[in-house]
Design brief:
Oligomer: homodimer
CATH topology of the largest domain in chain A: FAD/NAD(P)-binding domain
Pfam families (chains A, B): Pyr_redox_2, Pyr_redox_dim
Number of domains of chain A: 3
InterPro entries (chains A, B): FAD-bd_OxRdtase, FAD/NAD-bd_sf, FAD/NAD-binding_dom, FAD/NAD-linked_Rdtase_dimer_sf, Pyr_nucl-diS_OxRdtase_dimer
Number of helices of chain A: 12
Cofactor (chains A, B): FAD
CATH architecture of the largest domain in chain A: 3-Layer(bba) Sandwich
Helix content of chain A: 25-40%
GO molecular function (chains A, B): oxidoreductase activity
Radius of gyration of chain A: 23 Å
Strand order of the largest sheet of chain A: 3-2-1-7-18
Protein name (chains A, B): FAD-dependent pyridine nucleotide-disulfide oxidoreductase
CATH class of the largest domain in chain A: Alpha Beta
Amino acid sequence: MDFLIIGGDAAGMSAASRAKRNMPDMNVVVLEMTRDVSYSACGMPYNIADPEREIDDLVVRQADVFREKQGINLLTGHYAEKISPQDKIVTGRTIQDKPFSFSYDKLLIATGSSPAVPDIPGISQPGVMSLKSLDDGRKLKSYLTENNVNKAVIIGMGYIALEMCEALAARGIQVDMVKPRAGLLPWMEQGMSDVIREELKSKGIGIYDGHKIEQIQKTDSGLSVICSDMELKGDMVITAVGVKPGSKIAEDAGLKLSIGNSIAVNKQMFTSDPHILAAGDCADAFHIITDQKTWIPLALRANRAGWAAADNVCGQAIELPGIAGTAVFKVFDLQAARTGFNAKEAEKSGFEPVEVTIKSRSRAHRHPGNCPVWVQITGDKKSGRLLGMQIVGKEGAAHRINAPAVALHAKMSVEQFVQTDMAYAPPFGPTWDPMLTAANQLLKKL
Amino acid sequence: MDFLIIGGDAAGMSAASRAKRNMPDMNVVVLEMTRDVSYSACGMPYNIADPEREIDDLVVRQADVFREKQGINLLTGHYAEKISPQDKIVTGRTIQDKPFSFSYDKLLIATGSSPAVPDIPGISQPGVMSLKSLDDGRKLKSYLTENNVNKAVIIGMGYIALEMCEALAARGIQVDMVKPRAGLLPWMEQGMSDVIREELKSKGIGIYDGHKIEQIQKTDSGLSVICSDMELKGDMVITAVGVKPGSKIAEDAGLKLSIGNSIAVNKQMFTSDPHILAAGDCADAFHIITDQKTWIPLALRANRAGWAAADNVCGQAIELPGIAGTAVFKVFDLQAARTGFNAKEAEKSGFEPVEVTIKSRSRAHRHPGNCPVWVQITGDKKSGRLLGMQIVGKEGAAHRINAPAVALHAKMSVEQFVQTDMAYAPPFGPTWDPMLTAANQLLKKL
């Protein structure tokens, strides 16, 4: 059987490896447009933070290992341009501009996502960069050194923007962040978002939310981000305003699209064409709370969906359950984590959300090193169901969030969650874990 | 209504506070034999570690607050000696040896647990101490200073023994640990137990497991713990060989006892007498996995059971679900956590356990600060059910354990657990959380 995969990142390479493990005789071909496969994209900001580290340090497995040890026909520098579903053929061009054509029995689209490019005059000029591929990272890192960047402006304030902010600050670069919409992290509970804002301010970061960006201009000494009411200067500008799914090739092939133009897939990762699957950032998913379609591109899901796609190509009938949208990020000394819905999202999905935010402590009463932990919890007034949680703190936020994530998968009520037997020792939390305290408070309002 | 409570620690004071909140007019009387209530017993080792901290620092709420602000008739120095269930009367003696007698409509026994005293000649002499009450902590802390302790022997290697070991080492005291049974932490997977052993050795702690202790002798310079095949000298000896439930008063009253002589209670915390409840370390519980009786004295359960007891006394019909035995402790730079059953316990409960142990990393590929994380996972071959997990590592073990704990409450299968949407960011773990990697490995064997 010919299993063709477009895209050699998390989902694509997971699928290729899994398919060869399942069926060693299968002809597995991967078309990757860049020259890099299997690298930790999420690790880029942390690598960029350290001038001593090589960017290639992020490569988890070399291309040759896939080829020689796993027998995957991995073709880098191969840009797939067109799928012909009737003929079951994919055509494209190599990096040397040579045309190619591959037929398939089953095709997996794992084209990932790409940074959304804000519609701002001057966005394409030198010194304005974004971060997605390893090559973007390479270029950005070289730029920092070669241009002796001392001051940078980041457009956007999402996870990647915040991680890049920290990375640049670690290199002694002064950073201003700017975006048109007011609110640092609008999905986050206001008080907790303010905690993060204070953390950024305390590290000397300029936070300018609610400023319409009109253009990026070249100046004598660098670049200037001109807003309707102010101007921010820097040696470079990084845009990090979110990502969009790499679904154009699927759309052109007549495949059904879904939320945010992601590729619509069923629980077995099949698209609207029975011979074509999609997995990773380019594809949609079902939400664990509602079983409705959602699009939340995250790395674990990409790996998991790649596996599931391969299993289904190999004749198993694997259904992936939904996703909870569990995510975590670091902002200087703070950890911020979320899972499930906030009140606004819950309301949109037809729930009657009630939420509570509490401030607890990371360690037991008077334990040395104690610091605040904030927990926001959302439940449904009608059913009593747990709908989501957010945690912010200097310690214990990142790994705590997995507990409510599991509870969402189990469709637990707040009442059930509040009775779960959590760990306690003085160095790691109060007797009542902050998550339980939040749930206890919420229970009173349900 | 007269609600009488024996014991003013976690369960007793939780119950008293909750009862007064539920029904402000209720006459709530608490008989506490010591002069301390509402203190963090688990925090004692960490307090002892620091000569500068006052032991009274561990008191979370002063007795007067309970009396004046909450209207609880809190009587310290009141030792309850006897319950007369027919007359619904409790009698006893105060610290000044004055007899007292209280009648009740409902009685809560919250007598906690006390350190098991090993049967070793010489165990009662000065300089041999154990740790349970705040007064024990007070005495131990004074002893360290007044006797200029430089070397200590700890009998036992459980949580408290290990925490005390770290506390003494923090004060520059050289520590040897000894116990008759071989194996540092016999419930823990061997390889992970060895990781903890190495950590202790690297901190200069002497670990002597599998040495029968014959007697403790006074010497010219201090004390000597004499084993059948060796001798350990110290300025003091601490025994920490586990705890036993404070169930004598219940036994004498004819109440039904349970595992390890704990007081048998139903899910509403009622004992075999319909007017008497029990909660906290003195009472048993149902295990979440089997719904069978178990006795695992832990602080969160004590608080929760105190609340539930009060709610039931106040006429609500609150049933507590089972416990998972989720626990965590710190050993120098290591965190160790567990929930549910290990293979041996699972087998005893009629399961066909399969287990896997993996070594993963605390952070993403090549992320700075990366260190090993070990995860042991147990599942049932017959049903595919998740039965338990253990995690050891320098970071991320303590809070991760709550996720499988929640999964145990939800009676998840390993297959369901493996699909849960966990958080990922490079500073906090690999893309596949170590718990998921362990579950993936286990799935292959189920």
